[in-house]
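Recap slide: Mannosyltransferase putative-domain-containing protein, sequence and predicted structure.
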Amino acid sequence: MLRSFPRSGKARFAVLALLLFLAIACFISRPYLYDTVPRHYSSNPDQPSDWWAEFFTRLESTRVTAGTARIRGKAPEINWKPGTKAARPELLSLSEYNEDKFRESHASFVGQLPLFASHLRYNPDTTGIVTTAGVANFGQAVSLVLMTRRAGSNLPIQVVLDSSSPWMNLVCAETFPRLNASCLFMADRWAGIQHLVPKFKGYQWKSISIIASTFQNVLFLDADCLPVLNPDPIFDQGAEPFASTGLITWPDFWTQTTSSLFYKIAGDIEAPPLTSRTSSESGILVYDKARHADSLLLAAYYNYNGPKHYYPMFIQHGAGEGDRESFLQAALVLEALRKKGWYKPPTAWMKPGLGVKKGYWDVKKIPKVHGRSVAGKWRGMFMMQLDPTEDYRAVMAAVEKAKKTGTETKRQARRRRSEEGPPSPKQDEAAAAAAIVEGDFLTDSTFLAGVGNLTLEQNEGRVMFLHHNGVKPDFTRMLESKSGVIATNEERKYVRMWGHPGWLMDRYGRDVEKLLWEDSMQIYCQAELLRFKNLQKVCAKMQEIHKQLYT
């Protein structure tokens, strides 16, 4: 005969707690329960939420329980350059107890990755562009879609939404399909498991959106990042660096400020020298989710525990604190642990040949800033990021040039030093370049520190992305004075967003700004949207400014 459920509050709570603990323990200890789950998304984007239940349960079961990471002061903002003499800032201190908590959490999650990564779902052999947006910035996503199509891209676009509104729903249902773009409503994906889903903040949505997309090969763009060259060739068959890496990241301006404690916590791995690379931005990312399922999920772990733990540890309250180091750091950590023999990457589901070539390429070209000067006041508009295939070509050309100008072996270098004294910087550079092999470029972001200051001759006409980290390209907010979309000069006449169009015509053969303005007018002035009063005002103002500036 079954005993009745305890009547006292404490007893009921104890039983419920025990049942919950056993359920989670069973889930974690019996991963084979998910072995029957299809490994990829079907063509139907409205998938059952079983994988998301696994995702959130694994993340929560390994959540960092240490106290909030506290930073003493603020990391300095030092622009990166080769050979920088800056010292790694050490502003984070952890008690032995909190350090152990970090270690336990990180090791537990990494230990689950080989199996967990094999469950990552996507449609095999598909490629597309992904961004994330919501009520606060959906207008930026509209600009991204329009600019992507004007750049010549034919890739499908998915906009992962964290929230919605009536006008957004209309655009998603009626306008985006004509542009081969679609909206993924995460509230639908997570139906029935809302109790497992935490309340995410802005930065945390990036890893979620890449994971939620149905594509295997993903170009992720912040909603304020506009392509001006066609990005589709990044994914061409055999195109480097994607073909040999499956992961591409882009640089920010500053020297790295990640605390050395992070590398201890991640598995007592060696912190890379500050001369090796700049800090990383996260507004542009390229992933092959087959090859990098594990590093993508580790990045999701860093972001899940980001605001109170990993974000301060990565940036130490320096410039742009947030998720920007999480993606490349995840790849660096797993590669370092693999070399130590502590981690075996999952490869069972990969295709032979190209599919098992795995690395990471961090673009070497430092971005440049473009701004607008009005009435003697300058305001930054966007940072200009290079085509990664051009960056790869320039690095390879520089190394080959260095090899041809002086290719001495290490033995020859020692003999010459003993006979002639210390080498010149150019001799050192050439000797180091001669010793580099292909793998150094594809799996080690620190190789430039060993080569020296190679002269990289990138074609700046191959700037592919305008990342609007200054003024946001959101026409729905153009009437807000602080948005910066509209500006007037001393004569109270409107001025263009990106300055004189000559440089756009010279570089891209078209007036990119004018086309964005006109394409946006077609969206915001369509009859279906003019029933929204704010968009009526937006349409009228756009027409007024277009008549003055662009006709």
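The first helix runs from residue 9 to 29.
The mean pLDDT is 84.
(End of recap.)
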